[in-house]
Amino acid sequence: MSVVRELYVTTRKLYEKVAQPMPDNEQPRDEYIESVDLFLQARDRQLKDLQPVEEWSEAERQLGEETVKMNRFIDVQLGNWKQVIQEELQGTRHKRRHMGKYEQKSATASAYFFDSKN
Predict the structure, then answer these.
(1) Sign (positive/negative) of CA torsion 46, 79, 13, 57?
(2) For site-directed labelling of 101, which of 2, 11, 34, 87 has its Cα 20 to 30 A away?
(3) Residue 71 pLDDT greater than 90, yes or no
(4) Cβ atoms 42, 9 nearer than 8 A
(5) Of 68, 54, 59, 55, which Cα lies nearest the Cα of 5?
(6) Model confidence over 34-57: pLDDT tens digits?
(7) From CA 46, how far away is CA 2, in angstroms rounded?
(8) Cα–Cα distance between 8 and 60 in angstroms, integer?
């Protein structure tokens, strides 16, 4: 199988993966992101082995065009995911800072109430 064909197949699998919604739960989300990362790594290796476009056959050029179209969708989806994850991180940081305001880490002696029944 030519490198162009391998790249197309890998991109197609990645396209199908990112077309699915990202899971909400932490464990499935981590597995999902890891599988997407594996596809991206495989594509990176294939892109490095790619021949110049001038050496491609007509069939390979068509596969290349389809790969570029799928890649545009993949880029948009990954950008959306990045934004969602960044918003979740900012929300978590804000929540952590906000909760810290209500905790007194070091109370002074004047903050304690002493009962004097004796």
Answers:
(1) negative
(2) 87
(3) yes
(4) no
(5) 59
(6) 999 999 999 999 999 988 888 889
(7) 10
(8) 9
